[in-house]
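Narrative of activities, Objective 1.

The group set out to show that a structural description can be obtained from nothing but a protein's sequence at a throughput compatible with the screening campaign. Below is one input-output pair from the validation batch, recorded exactly as produced.
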Amino acid sequence: MALKVKPLPRTATPSSSLTPDAAAMGPLVTPLERLQLMSPATWETVVHEWVYSLGQHARVEKFAGSGDTGLDVVAFASATDEDPWDCYQCKHYDHPLAPNEIWTELGKLVFYTYSGEYSVPRRYHLVAPQGVGTALSKLLHKPEQVRSGLLEEWDSKCRKKITSTREIVLDDEFKKHIGAFDFRIVTAVSPHTLIADLRKTPAFPSYFGGGLPERGAILTPPNELAQSETNYVRALLDAYEDRLGTPLNAPTDLAHQDLGDHFTRSRREFYSAESLREFSRDNVQPGTFESLLDEVHNGVVDVEQAQHGNAYERVLAVVKQAKVLQFTSNALIVRTHTADKGGMCHQLANELKLRWRR
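Output recorded for this entry:
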């Protein structure tokens, strides 16, 4: 007897087609959601990167671990002096900060400035991936209520939690310090502000993904040779000499049409690669372009060192090899053009890492 099986209902068809990126990486995770997914240690690193990127301080340092006296990221106006300085206190919770979650940190601030462990900062910023809640936001706009709240909460939130070695009691002198403390320095930083600032830096893709921006216009070679072109241009002239058997003092000596066209293409490719170098400075971590240049060198050096009929044939063979290289591990590959690969050969010749004539 055949069993009667009720068919399962069909699932709804998605309203839009699945893109290759979505298939490979899953649904888009927004920068704000990425902040909330970070570990506390990564969060402190991101805050450190953000403060450094602001360019408002001569020195930025990150402290971590027990015994840090309540300081996470500190930034100094001077490279040598300790004052003035700003504190960026990193709090990592799965919800917006509330008043009862800051009393211990403020207790450390007033105690260690009272004991002389460090001076009063110019600003004390609370930085949390979900920002601060409404109650804390309102409280921070009322410094006197911050002071009175700290005094009220001292025994439960601070007395035994400032240091593990002893209890910190509110004696008269300490109360006087708290009474004179300017709590207007305590502010909160919106996570949206941090994201917007980091978006302008090469560090952004490392933490938030989202891909690289478009490159924009490629640099055009100027009519006159730049000083920065000296080495690779001379190397090309040497290669042309080796083919022609005729000395060449300058590109203007090139009467051979094919070689003149090759020289023009080589300059365009060199400037294309220079455009990629400039793009990398603004959009990826330092060293990314240099790593790509090393990959090109590793991919062509055997061809460069092989036997060729003349130096010009060596140039053609090396550049041809560079243009078919496949890169897989460098962030710049999504913005690298074929001309860049040829241009990087000339950059390497400019740095005397590739030699055409032997």
